[in-house]
What we know:
The chain is α+β, with helices and mostly antiparallel strands. It has one domain (about 1-100): Alpha-Beta Plaits. The protein is about 40% helix and about 30% strand. It is built from 4 helices and 4 strands. A hairpin with a 6-residue loop joins strand 2 and strand 3 (about 50-55). The model has no long low-confidence stretch (mean pLDDT about 95). One of its GO terms (molecular function) is monooxygenase activity. It holds the Pfam family ABM. Keywords: Monooxygenase, Oxidoreductase. This is Quinol monooxygenase YgiN.
Amino acid sequence: MIIISATISTTSANRDAIIALCREHSARSRAESGCISHHIHADCEDSSRLFFHEEWQDAKAVAAHFAVPESRDFVKQLTSLVGHRPDMQICRAETISPADLARP
């Protein structure tokens, strides 16, 4: 599984437009093949900060997602509103149980 996390900062002037854009992008992304989940969340400690959490089946699904014209347009529009690209981390992950953590 691939997990993508990203953060962006908003202002009172652009927050509503950014949230609308992000909600549309997340809904569209969830319909893509290989998307397990794709959500945007507001930071409870900093109302100007938004957090993306995405889970993808594999790197091929992420590459396909990044190649979708609407995804590229989303990044351009978001960058235009925010003034910079989102701070993003992409990680490979595996699901484990709590019992697995206790094993040496």
